[in-house]
Amino acid sequence: MKWKRKANRLPPNKARKIIHVDMDAFFASVEQRDNPELRGKPIAVGGSKMRGVVAAASYEARVFGVRSAMPSVTAKRLCPHLIFVKHNFERYKEVSHQIREIFLSYTDLVEPLSLDEAFLDVTEPKRGPASATLIAKAIRQEIYETTQLTASAGVSFNKFLAKVASDINKPNGMKVITREEAPAFLASLPVKDFHGVGKKTAERMGRMGFRSGADLMALSELEMASRFGKMGRHLYKIVNGLDDRPVNPNRIRKSVGAERTYSEDVSTRAIMRGKLDWLAEKIFSYLKERDNYGRTITLKMKSPDFIIHTRSKSFSGEVRSLSALKEIAYQLLDENIEDVPVVRLLGLNVSNLERENPDGVQLLIPFDGEEE
Questions:
Q1: Catalytic residue among 31, 60, 111, 117
Q2: Which residues fall in the annotated binding site for Mg(2+)?
Q3: Where are its TM segments located (predicted)?
C-alpha cells in the first residue's frame, strides 16, 4: 500500500513557517549554464525568429520586455539580438529532481507548483535550524552548490505572503514577511497582486475605487462576498492575512495536455489530423503508464493572428483507448475547422481524471519545430 504524506494542518493559533522557492529564469538559466557561449546574452527558450512562442527568457532578454508566452516575432522585435534556443525539457526535469531532493532533505511537506517552484512547510524541519529564514538561506546555497543555478525565496507564515515575497528581490534574493509586518505590507499591495485577481477583475475593482489592500480592508467578509461573489470570501481572508491553506505534498493535478507551435501554418484537415495523432499518442502514453484516464477532451487551436479557440467534449466514463481519443479529437477538429481553417498551434488536453495525478500537467512546452 502506498502511503501519502499528509498536509500539515495546524491549529489556527499556531503559526506555520512557510517558504516559497522560485528558481530564477529556470529554463534559460539551465541553457546558459550548460552553454557558456550564451552566458550574459539575451536568450529565449523555444520559438524562432519568425514563429513559435517564447517558453522562457533570460534576465538579459527581460530587460527588453521579452516574456514567456510571448510570440517569437514580438520578442525579436523588442530585442533584435535575441538568441533563440531549442528547449531541452528532459534536462530541465533532471535538474528539477535534484532541487526537489534538497527540499525533501529538510521537510516532507513540499508542494511543487511546477518544475521550478514549490512551497515548503518547515514548521518542524527534519534538519537544520528552527528558523525558516536560515533554512531558506541554506536551501538556496545548496541549490547553487549542486546545480550552479540561483533561486529566490519568500518566507512568511502563510502561502500567499511567502509566494508574493519570493518575487520581491528577484533574482537571487530573499524576502521575509513577519506576522507583525504583514498588515502594512498587505495594505500597500496593489489589488492586481492578490491571488485570484486577474487583469480584468483588477480593472473593474479599480473603477469601483479598490486599488490596494488598504481599500479592501475596509470591507467586511459579507461585503466582499456581495461585491465580488465567491472570490470575495477568499479575497477577504487573503487581504487580512488569514490564509490558512496547508502545504499539500499531494497536490491534485486535474489534467494532462500537450501542444505544439508549427514552423509553418497548417491549412489542411489531413495534416491537422496527423498533428493531432502525434499529440494524442504522447498524452495517451502518459495516461496509460499511470492507468489514469479522463472524461473531458479539449482541443486548442491558435490561428495565425494569435486568437486561441478551445472546444471540449465530456463523457460519462473515461476515454480508455488511443483510437477513441483520436476520434474525439477529429470530431472536435471537424466541428470547428470552418471557424479556424488555418492554425499555427494545436493542443490537446485530457481532464476530469479518474484519480489524483501528482505529476506535471503539460507534457510539452510549445516551441517551433517538427515532431521528433
A1: 117
A2: 22, 116
A3: none
